[in-house]
Amino acid sequence: MSERKQGFLPTKATFELGDQIGSGTVGVVYRATSPDLPEPVAVKLLSPNVSGDAAIVERFEREIVVMERLNHPHIVRNYGGGRIDGQLFYAMQLLDCGSLKDRLRRGPLPWPQVAAYGVQIASALQHAHNHGIVHRDLKPSNLFYDRDGNLVLGDFGIARDLTAQADITQHGMTVGTFSYMSPEQITADARIDGKADLYSLGCVLFEMLTAKTPYQGASFAQVWDQHLHAPPASVRAAQTEAGVPVTCPEWLDELIRKLLSKKAYERPFNARAVEGVLLQHLLDEFGEEEAKKLTRLDGPHALPRGGDEKQRTWVIWVVLAALVVGLAYAAAGGSSDSPIETPPQEQSAKP
């Protein structure tokens, strides 16, 4: 598509579409600019060849509605959506610094950084859950780095809206990515709620520490069987892909095992509880003053290999200081509720 100005109602912004930066089975994403916005954005257009599929159109429209309800520093920002010349679209924050999945290809992360990233993710999940949204597809490839190195949760395409009269998927249909799916997602339980995202969070925390998913198998059936029946995976009993033992404090290993509980009621009460445990241990371990001395984040602006390991360990403490402020703001009643080529085992089971 050649660059041209289009009015994307109902937003007031006028976007100039630039290069295509992504595509999928239902949509194409373009880099775009607007005189009404300080930064470039990403504009997702529903592909014309699927616009006649009522289920896909409904899911795309639901994603627009979902994104309009969410406003959180660790969830992709929404700039509105609607139709242009009959074609559905929505505009969102441009995240072009890679994903957590990209980072994990280089190996595992140190546990303090994993814990701090966990604070960011849990904060984003709590905000979504407070607004009746269950993500249902939390995984490293849906966690993107912004230009400051923070993690931002994106892709709400199969999110469940608990406030809607009906789900976007048919009853009994399994949705998600099977390396990260909770047992209740695998069995297509109609009562799925935010506890399903907590299970996926456990999978992601495990992977950040080990650079591999908690359950491995040659097929999705083998992985699903482990999600349903295998004991919760232990990080301290695992090794990295290079065969190196994982360094992980006992409290973090225990938290991950609780998140990976087969029964939803055995997991932590909510994402806020997970955030609180992670943040409290980090502050107890390093102290509030030291936590504020973070100078940089991991991700696109990481220290080079062989750099100062002590400084590398402190890569994300600025985020923690900001989250302390966010938690206080939330307690006071503010609106912020505080924050590729895919291997076979990570393929999505989306409808």
TrEMBL record:
All copies of domain Protein kinase, residue ranges: 15-283
InterPro entries documented for this protein: Kinase-like_dom_sf, Prot_kinase_dom, Ser/Thr_kinase_AS
Superkingdom classification of source: Bacteria
Native organism taxonomy: Bacteria, Pseudomonadati, Planctomycetota, Planctomycetia, Pirellulales
SMART domains (alphabetical): S_TKc (SM00220)
A Pfam family recorded for this sequence: Pkinase
Protein name as catalogued: Serine/threonine-protein kinase PknH
EC class name: transferase
Molecular function as annotated in GO: ATP binding; protein serine/threonine kinase activity
The protein's Enzyme Commission number: 2.7.11.1
Transmembrane segments: 314-332
Organism field: Botrimarina colliarenosi
